[in-house]
Design goal:
236 residues, Rossmann fold, elongated, OB fold (Dihydrolipoamide Acetyltransferase, E2P), 15 strands, disordered C terminus, alpha/beta, 6 helices
């Protein structure tokens, strides 16, 4: 598991020492620094991106809520505090957890684990977005095309034509095989001869599907049920 980077912020020294002790007991935690003065923490966080900040709320000059709101980027946040009146505000700020002192190690560790899991999930989503492409051979050359660039795929007997805004690729492959190979990428069949990415459908009507690119494709009668889950307006 990749380590999650953390800073601790609390104007009370014993609370900071407790955060240090607890973090040192968690193998996947990298505690970068701790601060008793929130204004110093703000200066540090404006220069260094961290995954998670664990902060008190009621602190002089700058409270934990204000500190989080002043940051241009939003690290994950756990409030570690005696205060209970900020719980609603914490919810509005998408705070990972709200720990009310005193906090035992098991409760603290669960909150950090929740933050770590959320961070890994976000990173996996970002990675998937960056790597969403397909590789195929056309005219004896291997091509890489990103999913967002694919307008539609048209089947022509033993061949398919993969259409992008700039180019068409003729591929020796049956439509049924293409659908099977890339079913996890959310392609949807709208006609016996056409498939598109679900995310590229703008609207559909009785006999046609309108794409976000502005193109219109035929809609086969037997494929309408596959579109019923889409919240799209009728175009016919």
């Amino acid at each position: 598991m990749e380590k999650i980077t953390i800073v601790g912020i609390d104007d009370e020294y014993p609370a900071l020492e407790l955060i240090k002790q607890y973090c040192n007991r968690i193998s996947y935690v990298n505690l970068l620094d701790t601060f008793q003065k929130p204004e110093e923490a703000l200066e540090y966080l404006q220069k260094h991106r961290v995954d998670l900040m664990i902060t008190d709320i009621n602190m002089p000059y700058l409270n934990g809520v204000e500190l989080l709101q002043k940051l241009e980027y939003k690290p994950l946040c756990i409030f570690f505090t005696l205060e209970t009146r900020y719980a609603v505000k914490a919810f509005e700020l998408d705070v990972v957890h709200y720990l009310v002192k005193p906090v035992d190690f098991e409760t603290f560790a669960k909150a950090v684990k929740k933050a770590s899991d959320l961070l890994q999930f976000r990173q996996a989503i970002d990675k998937k977005k960056k790597e969403d492409f397909i590789m195929f051979k056309s005219n004896y050359v291997m091509h890489k095309v990103f999913l967002n660039d694919i307008l539609w795929v048209e089947g022509l007997s033993e061949y398919i034509v993969l259409v992008t805004a700039l180019k068409k690729y003729v591929i020796l492959e049956r439509m049924s095989n293409f659908v099977k190979n890339y079913e996890s990428l959310d392609f949807i069949r709208i006609h016996k001869s056409f498939i598109v990415l679900r995310a590229h459908i703008q609207s559909f009507g009785t006999n046609s599907v309108q794409l976000t690119s502005g193109h219109s494709l035929p809609l086969g009668r037997t494929y309408k049920n596959a579109l019923k889950g889409l919240s799209k307006k009728l175009i016919d």
